[in-house]
Amino acid sequence: MAIRTLSFLWAIFVLAPLAHALHFYVNTDETKCFFEELPKDTIAVGKFAVYEFNDQFNDYVENNGNLKVEITVDETFDNNHRVVSQKNSPIGQFTFTSLDSGEHKFCITPRHTNWSKKAKHRVFFDLIVGDAKPLVDSKRDNDVSYLTLQTNELIKKLQQIKREQSLLRLREAAFRDISESVNSSTTKWTIIQIIVLVATGLWQLSYLKNFFVKQKVV
Which structural domains are found in the chain, ordered by start? Predict the structure, then answer.
């Protein structure tokens, strides 16, 4: 029973990165971008497969001839600093490590070496965040090695969750600092307004008193 429970948890954590999977359609030379928050010092692996519509088969098929795929990754929080720029075959992957916490922009562009050719493309893209090492096939030689593998994977996923929590704490701290700054500025402005109103009132009373004295009313 314990082995089944641990296997179930392991499957959830292992399959969790697949939530980043995308499936979309683009034309040749059309760029499709999406955004992803990454914690600092995190390994990101992007796996992609781009297929081209073939009129003869009336379906999307692999094109290993003149089709290339441009991949770019920019740090939007750092003036769109580019950290990845590659031109790959239609099916492949790329890997990079985030240098700082923040939003990253991933863009994919199918291009033909024959610039005159245009086509429709189906794109599959998976972004795996965390450990870039592929899972080792234990083949369940014995329960001990199998459970050890599962435990190691759970530890890696927990470390990923901790990194994401650190990113959230940094954002909360920045938001708190901004809120305190705004509240402080509002308080100062309110005090200044009160001082100006009191000074204006005193000046008006003094002026009216002098006026009445000159008019011999008082």
Answer: 19-133 (2.60.120.680)
